[in-house]
Amino acid sequence: MSGVPLPPSGEYLKAVRESSRAARIRANISISEESIQRFLLSPAFTTTFDRLRHAHGMTLPLNFPSVISELNVLSVLSLLNFASGYRVPLHQATGRGAFDNIRAFVFSAYISSSTGAGDYFSARGMQEIPETTVADLMRVTDVIHTERPHESIPGVTVGELGGPVWEVVQLIANTLRETGEALVKGGYPDLGSFVLEALKEGEKAKKTGGDEAEVTLERLVRGIPAFQDMALVKGRPVYCFKKALLTLHAVALRFGGSESSSVPIPRTSHLPIFADNVIPSLLIHLGVIDLSSADPALGLPQLFPDARNPERLQALLAAAEPADPTTNKSREVPKEGPLLTVEQAYVLRAAAIDACELIVDTAKGLERNGFSWLKSITLPELDAWIWAVAKDRPDYRKLERFALRNSPYF
Question: Which of helix, strand or coil describes residue 284?
Answer without folding.
Answer: helix
